[in-house]
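Input record (one chain):
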Amino acid sequence: MRRSVRILTVVATTGALAAGTAVAANSTPLQGSQNAKIRNVIYLVGDGMGRTHVTAARERYYGASGKLNMERLPNYGAVATYAVEPGSDQPALVTDSASSATAWSSGVKTYNAAIGVDAYGKKVPTLMEQAHSAGFATGNVSTAEITDASPAAMFSHALLRGCQGPVYSDASCLPKKADGTYENKPADQTVITPIAEQIARNGTADVILGGGLSRFEPDDQKALQAQGYQVLGSFGDPALPAQTAASQKVATKADLDKARSGKVVGLFNRGNLTVEQAKAQLPADASQKQEPTLEEMTKKSISLLNGRSKKGFLLQVEGAQIDKRSHANDAAQTLAEAKAFDDAVKAAVDFAKEDGHTLVVVTADHECAGFNIIEKGTFTNAEAAAPPSNTDSGNPANNSTPSRSSSGNVKDPARSSGIVNGSGAGDPKNFGPATFRTPDDPADVKDGSPQASLWLSYLSGNHTGADVPIYAYGPGGKQFATSQDNTELYGKMYRSLFDTAPRTN
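The corresponding structure, as predicted from the sequence alone:
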């Protein structure tokens, strides 16, 4: 049986630009009134976006002296992102998207894979649930499946992030004990109810845009329509036992363009939305060409939410593919998704500038893959015949153990087949750097060449524990211009909407 859960949502953005294209950008920081009453909060999450992701995207698209739209915002700070171990307050220094999203949506530390519950598995209220209950309009946008961790944490509760649906399974929804057996089912069945099922019944977000159609079933569409939602596309034929690509119809940008008002749900892919670089290379008649960009979804969400409630609105926008393509160590797609996200930032800030009562916050849930800019013409440790030396001829007291001589840090041709997006592109085991031209390079310099000035590498295929940047614009923006924990973002956004501190139990 499906159960309803009331939940809260926030938005994140992504966008792309053709490779090596210079973009004119005013480097003057934007200003906004700090004293105006806040009616709206737009929270944009570049999933997996660390400081180097921002720097590399800036250099790639704007040049060394340019700025991304997010970098032009007047308030800048940093966010610590650690999680905790299950059933304790012991820090887990590297977070995943689920625990990080729960931190900003509910103000609590929790374990990796947990959504909308604390470290002990107890359901905690979310900012979007609270805003919805108080009469604010709400929206949740993502380039991932809308049931994925970052969007889900605003309007659902789950012991495990994999409990997305469409059907329940112990493996997806129940944590395991130390002996490998599953935990007992909790008294609160909400936290083991598939996330898609919760979303379709709790009415927490008025506007829901993203991917993940395969997670939903015809009765989910029926439940949404009973609450007054306009469902773009189709969740399937109730007469069919299994919902497949043939029985479901994804929404399209044309469908979204026709939506003028009211509560709207649009799922534009059965899985994650298509990355912008891949979409641009598809034939004109490919179905993925009908997907809206993150910028377009952001603009439409704002237009649907603005004026819907006299109190204002809360919107979360996620540029999810920055993380997913960093996991894949695909630098070209990572850069394009960072740019696409920045385009969505501009859409939000343009509205905020005109409105005067909107707080825009731009940040990330964690850094992904140790993305790094290395010196032109150099190589990664994975390509080295020997690691860097650790002896100091000027002061032997600085030597490390075991000693590595000054002959270290030599490139091994057998371990390097060249630049991963150039001469070594055919080698799936290549861990060399990827190189990209920038607007500062001579016109004849190409991506994947040794002459390109931007050289990028990855440390791993997983998350790191690095702090992430945060930018803010509009009234209340100055409070984010500091070093802060990710749980503090919840309280700051709560106070911005309600003009009071959240109650603690």
